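Usage example:
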Amino acid sequence: MTKQETLKLQAPFELSYDYKRSSGPIMSKFFEALSKKKILGTKNASGKVFVPAAEFDPNTNEALTEFVEVESTGIIESWSWVANPKPHHLIQSAFAFVLIKFNGADTSMLHMVSECAESDLAKGVKVKPVWSSDPKEMILDIKYFVLEK
Amino acid sequence: MKKIAIVGYAQNKILASAGALNEVELIMPVVHKIFNNLGISQKEIDFTCSGSCDYLQGAAFAFVEGLSAIQTNPPIKESHVEMDAAWALYESMLKIQMGDADTALIYGFGKSSPGDLDSIISLQMDPYYISPLWPDRISLAALQAQVLLNNNIINKDEIMHAVIESRNNGLNNLNALIQTSITEDEYQKDLVLSSPLRALDCPPISDGASAMIIASEDKAFNFSSNPIWIKGIDHRIETSNLGARNLSSSPSIKSAMKSLDIENTAFDIAEIHTQFSHEYPFLRKLLNLENVPINLSGGPLVGNVMMAAGLDAIGKVYEQLSTNSYKRGLAHATSGPCLQHNMLVSLEKNS
Amino acid sequence: MNQEDKEKDYFESPIHLEYQYTAGAATTRFLNKVKEGKLVGQECPKCKAVYVPPRGSCPRDGIATNREVELVDQGCIESFTIVHIPIPGNPIVPPYVCAMIRLDGANISFLHLVDGIKLTDIRIGMRVKAVWKPKSEWRHSLENIKWFIPTDEPDVDVTKLRFKPE
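Running the assembly step on the lines above writes:
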């Protein structure tokens, strides 16, 4: 076998799908409210509030249909500081992935926190959303969160 | 219930990039190896089940191509899981329990080197609330690490020692991708990727393939004089609603332990599918394995073939029970973010 | 509840992934020859079936195909379809013919284009030969063959092509 034959052949290739997602009766209400800068949750029979609005309670299996509005501010439950974002990350300067519990909610939501230092982050730190100027009724209608000063 | 045993397991040496091999060329050697070890062929296999993820290759139905690696003439009974091959083992056990088969070949393969595993794993998340944020696998794991640290369930010292121990154990594993030890000093100087996780806390991008053969009690001794019995297998999943999960515990593992009635079982050996270092002290405590040798292979931190590493944990326990004096072993496989989906397999020598 | 979809019931969620696709050993050997204008299949050491394009294995026997067999660039149409539907991203303007081409000496066929014939005249068993692009355009791709065109030879009974292991 010649050297050329043993060299591996490789070629870049890109995979793209322009998915359109139908978000269903519960999540579409959440996203519609989000586009109007409101945060909706769903409440189970014992009063536990799921934010973002959940379609069902994973513990009791009950379908959740009762909506409640919660505050748009919340606290950090957990965080992960990304010092050097990768190309696929939506924020290209240092930022954190965070689990945020909105005031009035009993569960957390994954999102990002930006415009702060790693040392600013701790459990319980208060955050508020930075809203997209072009809402599309999706999770990125909140661009990211910042610390509530 | 039929008694089912593992009668063979084989693994390719894990590579950082198996670029020169396509999927067929990756799978075929390991399937041949297991057949040669047992002196059998595909004709003795009633059911074949594989585990892989088409997104790793970026080609729809790539797993079908992989089937060209095995003898499919005359046509075979076959299935596939878009998961770790540990779940292909589970499906194979069901097939045997149902009476449709007495023997099964399971294989898992993964080639993570051609793509960007971080962005690929983002796509296994909830596509409404989570995937559009493109969270990478390391940041998601780090969120759980932070919760475990905040709640004093584990500490940073235990995380570091998980890495050091894994590297030391890996020195004895000829198939490990990483075969170097590290010092505390090297660990402390390592780059933090997603706090609190350093690069050394994360598994290496790995390419490889593994295969296993199981058989019902009727056939097991045809293949092996020393079958290792699967005493119990159970897998549980938690909600895909990440923010509704209690990341400081693992209800799925607790349920599986209860279902297998192993809460008080004294295991001699264990292999756990801890892809990130913080998961090791967490699961060691949760599984009551504090005085048990764990991940003597080095575990996923020295080689983590996506869609095969869970099967490898089971295979490594099988190997230990086959070749050592150990009698009882526990294997763990996981899938999804933050240990969302957990499988426990309890193995035993002799009956 | 109104089940009818409305525009606002959807959000766009495009995904984009980048890969460095690697061809693998068997395909690399094949494509290196394609770049030189040659079609080289691989033979199963056991049943002697010849695969083109080769994947590196004989699924009949589950073993590696490691002997190279150079084939001619002609064969016959084992099956075909006339495509009338435009496919997004495909530059070929319909209607056109996609055919399974069985090269002489090969035991499997592969998909390629057929041109140079009235659509109504195309048929299974028809003999065809490759039309190559200019040598300067040759790459590691079967697209080096522009398409296949009919030859004047008599048709083949494709049922006789069925593989019989030795």
